[in-house]
Structure formats: C-alpha cells, structure tokens
What does this fold into?
Amino acid sequence: MKPIDSLRTISGHPVALPRTRQGSSRRLFPLFVLASVFAAVSSHAQTAAPAAAPAQEEEEVLVLTPFEVTSSDGSQGYTAATTLAGNRLKTELRDVGSAIQVVTPQFLKDTGATDNASLLQYTTGTEVGGLRGNFAGFGDAAQLNEDTIRPSENTRVRGLAAADNTRDYFRSDIPWDAYNVDRVELQRGANSILFGQGSPAGIINTGLKTALFRNSGEAEIRVDSYGGLRGTIDLNQVLVPKELAIRISALSEEEKYRQEEAFAKDNRLYAALRYEPKALNHDGLITSIKANFETGRIRSNNPRTLPPADAITSWFDLKQPTYNQFQAFDHLSNRPNHGQFRVNLASTGAKNPAYVPQIGTFGFPSGRDGPTVFMSGGNQTMMVTDVIGAFVSGGRAPNGSIDGGIAAMPDNGWVSFNGTAQSAINNNEPYSKAGLWKNNLLRDASVFDFYNHLIDGDSKREWQDFHVGNLSLSQTYFHNRLGISADFSKEHYENGQKALLPGEVRLQVDPMAVYGDGSPDAGLVANGEPYSNGTKNPNVGRAFVSSNNAWSNRSVATDRESARATVFVQHDFAEKGSGWFRKFLGQHTLTGLFGKDTVENDARAWQRYGIFDSAYYNLSGKPDQRFNGSLTPVQIVYLGDSLLGKSLSGASIPSVSGNTTITSGAIRYFNSTWKATGVNPADPWQNGFYLAGDPSRNSTQSENPANYTGWTTTPLNIVDAEGSDANRDRLTTRATLDKATTESQALVWQGKWLANSLVTTFGWRKDIAESWAFDM
It folds into this structure.
C-alpha cells in the first residue's frame, strides 16, 4: 500500500481515513461501524470517570508458559528479546546459535509491511519477487516465467532458494497477512532441530495473535494513491477474568495498482480463544488451552512486472514485409521474397541466401495444422491456416489414384516473427541451443504502456481459498520447570488461475497480406506472386497476442494435518545457592519433540478449449485425439489498428479488451475432394507456383487446386472448460496426486554455564519420511 493520506485516532488508536473516489468506502462500512462503536464505548467510559482520577493501577503481569512468546514479551520498539526458534521453547535470542531476525509489530506498522512482498525488502539476507520485490525470480530459461498466482511467495533467502512458510512453526501454504500476526521470525539457513526436511534457505515463521486477559481493541483503515482500501479490526475481550478470553481480527482489502486493470481483493476472518481454568492453575501448576481458526478468500487479477517479449521490432527492422500463405515456402525459386523461411535449398543442401532467421510460425505457441481463431473487437473467425497433411490428403496422381498431395500447395502456413531466443537458434548463434539467449522485452512504453496497463486486460483471474484451525494444550509444573504441550493443526488451501495468456506474453504482428484462398495461376503473369489474388487479410499489420490456452489454467488443493508433542525439563543449579560451583554449572534444559505431519496435494492443469467433433477428427486425420496439438485451437487476439506504414515508437498498442471467449461456429478449410468433371488428371497444366524454366512448372491437372472442392466451411464444435465441471474434467491435460508423511523425533539439550556467560546447545533429530505420487 502507498503511504496513508490522512490519519485520525479512535480512542487512542490510529485510523487512516480514506480519500478516494465516491462510493469506495461502502465496502468497508462494517469496519467504520465497529470502530465507531468502540470509540463510543471508550468515550462513555472516559466521561463517566470522576474529575479526580485515582492513582493508576499497575497492569497485572500475564504469566505465559515457556511454549509461547508474544510481542510484549521483552520487545521494545524494533527489538525482540525472545524466540521459540532455538528449541521450540522461549529462549533469549542471544542464546540461539543461528541467524534469526525477529520483526516486531512496531516495525510492521512503521514500514506499512503487511506481507512478504512489503517486508522482505527491509530484512537481512532476504529477497522477494513481485511488483515491490527486490529480485526478479523469473527462472533461467529462454522464456521467463512470471507466476502471478502468489507473487509474494516468490522468495529467496541468502541467495539460495525459497524459504519455508510456517505459522506458529506449522508448515503452511497460506500467504500471511499482518492483520493477525504478532511477530515474524526469519531464520536464515537450515535448522534441522526445527525442521529436519526444511529448506536450506530457512523459514519465515509468523507468530499469530493470541487471546489475552485484558480488553483491547483497534481499528485501522488505509487508502493509497491508486484507490486501494484496506481495513482491519482487532478486538480482545475477557469473558471470565483471568480464565477465559477471546480475540477476533478481520481484514477487508481491495488493493489496486498503477496498472489499471490489476486488482486484488483479500477478505479474512480470524478468531483465537484462551482458556486457563482456575481449578488447574495453582501451586506452580499452569494449564493453558488455546485455539484459533482462520478463513480467507482472495480474488485477483495480479499485475505483471515483465513487459511483453518483443517479437514485433524485427518486422519494422525488415521494412514491414508482407507475405501470402504459399510464397513463404517456395524454397526452390529465386523469385524476390521467396525462399526466406527455409535454411537449406532442397536441391543443393546449401544455405539459402534469402533465409530470414526472425521468421517463425504464426501465433505462440503454434497449433500447426489445427484451427486458428482470430478475434477482433469481440468478433470471431476460425480458419485452418496451415494446409498440410489431411487437408490435402485427397490429392491425386496423373493416373487418377490418390497420392495424398497437391504440388501447387506444398507444406505451408501463416508466418509471423520469433523472439530473440528462437531467432538466435535459427541463425546458429553460439550457445543459443543451450538456453542462454533470452527473449528481448519490449521496454519502450510508447509501444505498449506496461507501466500503466496489464496486457491481459480483464482476461486473467487468480484465486486462493483457505481455512485453518490450530489447537494447543499445555501444562507446566513446578513454576515452569517441567512441562508438556500437545499441538494440532489442520489446514485446507486451494489456489488456481485461469488466463488467456501464458507466463511469458509475446507481442507479435500479422504480416500476412492475403488469405490462402487465391490461385497459383497468379504466378503465371510477369513477376507475379502465386496466391497473391487471395482474399485480402483485413488484419495485416496489426499487433496481436496469442495462446493455445493449454498452459495457463491450473489449480492446486493442499490438505495438511500436523500433530506434535513437546516435553521439557529444566534445572537451575544456581537457584538454591550462590557458590561458584553452582554458578559454573548454571541452568540446563532438556527438550523432546514427537511429531507427525501429513500433506496431500491434488494438482491439475487443463486446456481451456477442446474439439469433440468426429467430423473434424476425420478432416484433420487425427481421430479422437483431443489433446493433440493439431486439435487445440490457437487463439489470436488483435490489439489496436494496423501499423503498416507507421512507426513502432509511439504505436500505443492497447491491452486485450472485449469478449475473448471462443464459441462453436464455422471453420474455413481446404477440402481436397476432387470436384472437376470432364477433366483428365493427366492433362497438362502450367503450375504457376514455379518460375518459367523450372521443371516443376510443367505439371498436370492433378496438381491444380481448382480441380478440388477447395476452400469451404464446416461447423466446428468447441468445448469450453469454463462451461461446466464435466467439461473441465474432459479437458484436464494433467493431474497429480501426492501424499507425504513425516514422523519426527528430536532431542535438544541447552546448557547455560558460568552465570549465562557460556551457552552450549546440542540437538539430535530423526525423521522418517514416506511419499506416494500418482501422475496422469
């Protein structure tokens, strides 16, 4: 969030008052009401007090067991004194022999930090990706990967890897938020005492707020300069003095960004209960029962930090050439603009001097001979743009038999331009095939204003849903000299994404001047181009983005169950005497841990659209292969007007807008059924696809496309995964079920010698891990 515009207090508690567009405050109206009620109660209590206030009573000290720490436990400002990160017992930070940093509530408030993205940029040895991050975290492949589902969880500690996320030292997948967090503990580096199978980077642990035996309340509202609103409330109420207390915290946030189309809505509710029965708390005995529960729902269209990959500049560098569908693969002739897309001449094997390495297949990724869906302003056109394989399988030989080819229609297809990585491979640049070449990014904001706009527009969504409950039962004896704690946690977490565009968005241009429904006879005229008399392409020169909708739709559901028991015994030799020998022996603590953790993951990926159409299966020659690349529609979404004759700089290409949902309709394709009557396939025919003098120019009527049914339309049934759960199941491309259990035993001895001048720690841990996986 941006700095608060204005600040007021309600009964001594800071409250930021929103200053934004009209009507925005309605979403936070319940928070205003609760805050006002709290203020009214506090104000009434103050006015009812006598004029001469009695001496202020000292606040009773809350005695906690060694199994917990709070922000008030020795914390001053940004400095914390104790932690559980050493041996799961309250320990002085100075006595823990590992790199631990504790972030206090005061630090969170002063920096405005509410999650990893806003905190880890301030802490030592930590990095976080995303919009406010301090490292990229996009991977090392030629195509950079930008995960927009949980950008704040893209962390790195000590430059190694992502840290483990924990809540009260239970593993968790839930992204933390400061509204219910009492402290954040960053432990850099491996700690086998806490987690035998933990990340070598360390852990990021959030200590949750607990119910306390004192009444308190706080409401806070923040507003940022982009119109975002964040409201939180935290109320603690004692129900039975010194025995029963409850705490409720709530969050309602709608975050907005500089990219106008991006947003994130986060709503959470948290409740904590503390019960310490008086009947069990006496004579050095402390019994504590704590429970908490949290539920949350996050919906977002998260911003992108990467500009689009540049696959459009090379078209301007080449002076904006345009092509027709079949000239692109005339690799035998020397006609101008021909032979640009094949490295080698078929006749000689030598390098084609006209080869252009920037040229690539149309769309990204390409469906090859599958359907291409063109979308402009909400209108849809479907066409087979690569006329190969089954679409010319009816071609005849001069004797009239089927030979499965038409010489005037060779292997062909629509073309566009590659990114830098593929162009380098095509040009055989050094190390290009090792993935060391990255795709250049389009960093000129006058071409596409990636600072202020999300190229996806409103076509992308992420979601997160979760609920988690914790229960802790502890009892200590002899004034915290001996104790046992049993802790349980159960968590369900889901996240997912549906998106038109993949992780790396490539901005391309349509250089195709005409459709492929022209004739090779156009090549018979002087310097004529075959097929140049096809239907004019109304979108030539327009920028576009493309996707086959197969790699950007996924979900993960995770269930975690954990149980652990912790026991300790402590003896202080100096407690009952002051001799030098007793001071030398000091205090010793032995802690044992027994635990079991179970995690189950259900991960799925699906393609958005599929073809369940037996007639089209027969046309394509690939019956009933719904996940074959040739049966996955490639979607082309045009952006803005044609750039022909214009400069790339200042093009102001817009984001995706309008309806982008593919629906069933008519698809245009080449039908290779022989239709000519009274025509002998062996009769001579001049194949205008080749130049005069080329032996292939003297052909027969069997190779003349005009003798076949040619370009026609047929209905095509498109199935949408968003139409129903059954459709999504049918279009699931991968499903993985994982289960893992870990049984743990640990023993830690800590000795404080010479009046705490020397601290020694020895730990032993044993983990037995089992895992199962099913992948399809």
In short: The chain has eight helices and 36 strands.
